[in-house]
Amino acid sequence: LIKVNGLQVAPTELEDLLMTHSNIADAAVIGLADEHFGQVPTAFVVLKDPNGKDSLPEDIEEYVKGKLP
């Protein structure tokens, strides 16, 4: 589990969410140390089409934020 600001986040839940994105072929999430939050989830993704219209990190981040509670 990744501990973010006192909350526990399961990497597999974020990976499953990332895999619902139409341009992501594979995803892995780890926690990286952060001085303010303890840890922050960090995703590594393999894109189906690296030149696709929704392949920028900002596009994927916005997609994930729109799906999280």
TrEMBL record:
Q: Which residue ranges does the record assign to the AMP-binding enzyme C-terminal domain?
A: 13-69
The entry's protein name is AMP-binding_C domain-containing protein
Q: Which PANTHER family match?
A: AMP-BINDING DOMAIN-CONTAINING PROTEIN-RELATED (PTHR24096:SF149), LONG-CHAIN-FATTY-ACID--COA LIGASE (PTHR24096)
Q: Does the keyword Ligase apply?
A: yes
Q: Does the keyword Ligase apply?
A: yes
Q: Which residues form the signal peptide?
A: none
InterPro entries xrefs: AMP-bd_C, AMP-bd_C_sf
Q: Name one GO molecular function term.
A: CoA-ligase activity
Query: Can you name the source organism?
Result: Toxocara canis (Canine roundworm)
Return the similarity comment: Belongs to the ATP-dependent AMP-binding enzyme family.
Q: Which UniProt keywords apply?
A: Ligase
